[in-house]
Amino acid sequence: MLGAQLHWLDEIDGDSYARPETCAKLAALLSQIRPRAAIAHWPIDCHADHSMSAAAFQRAMQLSRVFPEVYFMEQVHQSRHFHADRYVDITTTAERKYALLGLYVCQSGDQIAAERRIAEMYHGRKIGVEFAEAYADWPLTMAPGRCLLDEII
Known about the structure:
Layout: H1 20-33, E1 37-41, H2 48-64, E2 69-73, E3 86-89, H3 94-102, H4 109-127, E4 132-137, H5 148-152
Parallel strand pairs: 1-2
Antiparallel strand pairs: 2-4, 3-4
Helix pairs in contact: 1-2, 3-4
């Protein structure tokens, strides 16, 4: 429906870890795709799979030496201490997004869509639109291709 290509990391739902194999597979994808920007889970998330994916992405960037701009996304009831740096107006695509989330049956997609709708209405009011997504910047990646930690090592 989106025209996007899906890549699996072969991790198990509820039992995922930032294993060297997982980080290497993600690094290979970064090297192949070379994205300008990426959206990742907030690292301080109470869902272990989400915090793992943020850690694996960070390690994959180090391994691949590909440093896209990284924006962290919010999970309504799982992200801890999340503070948005920017809001993106999704009013024109919100209904399609919620319909797609509803198809995510194995993760209670209808419930996720309902939660997202409420949160995104709230965020939308902050910027004067109907629906908006909230993102936090990762300052270390805001200058593509550079990472301060790599420069001082």
